Structures are given as structure tokens and as C-alpha cells.
UniProtKB/TrEMBL annotation:
The lineage of its organism: Bacteria, Pseudomonadati, Bacteroidota, Cytophagia, Cytophagales. It is found in: Cell membrane; Membrane. This is ATP synthase subunit c. It is a multi-pass membrane protein. Residues 20-83 form the V-ATPase proteolipid subunit C-like domain. It comes from Dyadobacter frigoris.
Length: 87
């Protein structure tokens, strides 16, 4: 629904509203990635504290998941930038 509102605003010459929506989207993607990576890091530290012998496996899994989250956040930010520069 929000996307429809933004698209209607751009059809009527409201480029500022679309850029504002893209900025909000990029900000939400960054906040979501930060919260997700923080939760992963905290959970990994708890897991390592409970089972120190599994530290290597936990750390490897943590880094892979954090990289995937960063990739999704970067993709979302690029899409938002493309939307804002398109106008």
C-alpha cells in the first residue's frame, strides 16, 4: 500500500515524496541489519560461553550469517538509492 502511494505521488510530480520514502527505506534497512547482527553476536557469545569447545563452529556460522545480513542490507540500500536517483 505504501508503495502504491509513493508511485502515485511520483506520477503527480511529487519527486520529493519518493526520495523521502527511499531515504526511510534505506534507514530501516540499516537499522534492521544492525539489530540483526547485534542479536547474532550476542547469541554467539552466549553459545561460546556455554560450550567453549564449539567456539570455532559457532564463530564460523556467526560470520557467515552476518555476511548474509550485510548483503541483504546493502541490496536494500542500493535499491533505495536507485529509486532516489531515478527521479
Amino acid at each position: 500500500m505504501l508503495l502504491q502511494i509513493l508511485l502515485q505521488a511520483t506520477e503527480q510530480g511529487g519527486a520529493g515524496l519518493a526520495v523521502f520514502g527511499a531515504a526511510i527505506g534505506a534507514g530501516l534497512a540499516a537499522i534492521g541489519a544492525g539489530l540483526g547482527i547485534g542479536k547474532i553476536g550476542g547469541s554467539a557469545m552466549e553459545g561460546i560461553a556455554r560450550q567453549p569447545e564449539a567456539a570455532g563452529a559457532i564463530q564460523t556460522a556467526m560470520l557467515i550469517i552476518a555476511a548474509l545480513i550485510e548483503a541483504v542490507a546493502l541490496f536494500a540500500a542500493v535499491i533505495c538509492l536507485l529509486i532516489s536517483f531515478k527521479l
